[in-house]
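Chapter summary example.
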Amino acid sequence: MNINLTPVKENKRLEWIDAARGFAVFGIFIVNIGALSAPYFIHGGAEEAWNSPVDHFTLAFIDIFFQASFYTLFSILFGFGIQLLRERLLERDIDVYHFLFKRLLILIGFGIIHAFVIWHGDILLSYGLIGMLLLLFLKVRDGYLLLWGVLLLGGSVGMLSLAMYQTRAYLGGYNQAGIAQALENYQSNNLLTIWSQNYADWLYANSGLGYVFLTAALLPMFLFGMYLARKRWLHEPEKHTKLLKRLCKISLFVFLVIKMGPYLFGNPVWFSYIQDNIGGTASAIFYIVSITLLGQSEIGQKLIQPFISVGRMALTNYILQSVISFMLFYGIGFGLYGSIRPLTGIAIVLLIFALQVFFSKWWFTRFRFGPTEWVWRSFTYNSIQPFRKRSGQRSERE
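The structure predicted for these 398 residues follows.
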């Protein structure tokens, strides 16, 4: 089997897709910083712990513009990337199922390390496991691909939201014992204590029907991404400008109505699943289409430029954010867990992400892939892949 796949050359890259992936890495970090630095995201009680007007405004801002908007964006791009890779594999007469299965298996390995050694909120393990289901859809026709996505998303959101509405009187509250235990263990300077709490939190978040509903939320995003890649609307935006602008307007309307609208009615807990999954999908589509349209103008290209290099090594930057946060917040490092407020968290994200922008740009002047991407690629091909650029390649991006 010939697996001589070469890196995508600069003139063949869809830079606005790289930028969207980089923007997703930024948005995910804005949401994750709250869960990395305090126990309230998983155990509840954020509004009670962070009770100033500035805190509440910051939490609402994150909820409307970031929460459930960027893992959905990242998920759509994941499906988009799988479809692009499938097309390249078919062009080279490579066994698509074997190649993708192995690639996803390696991603699962990354996810296990990330989830249990660094942070319980990992998405890589879920992407690898749920991504395996995509192998069942590789030959499904475009229309059915979209239909499956809509049915899975609509069905799961409808069922869970109905159940939440019927039990709305019992929703809310928080786990005080869980909060106290997390604060004590993550502030410990004992690595085994931190890891045990990390494992307990992973089980708490992923046990029972939780993973079933996570699958029903992520798999449709993967399918939507594959559909977008097949339609090639984002490959050739100049040919589909009218359609993309219409899609941008519709998704923005749905995004604002469903994500912002509930705040006019007290933001009821029972509506949160609709808010996250329908509103989050609309906002993700709005973001990716907007970035694509921006990438077609000179000014827009300058605006998205900082995100491109970050997006080209998204896996590395995503894991790096967790590693830095591990050292900042847990007792084995600076021990800031539970001591920062939401606005401070955003400031930390802006600083770290700015450093990642400069680091990523510098990295690609010397290397062909991000470090984690290189490891992933080398394991996939069972051979050490070229890593450093030759001196004549220093100014060229693959």
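To summarize the output: The chain has one domain: 10-393.
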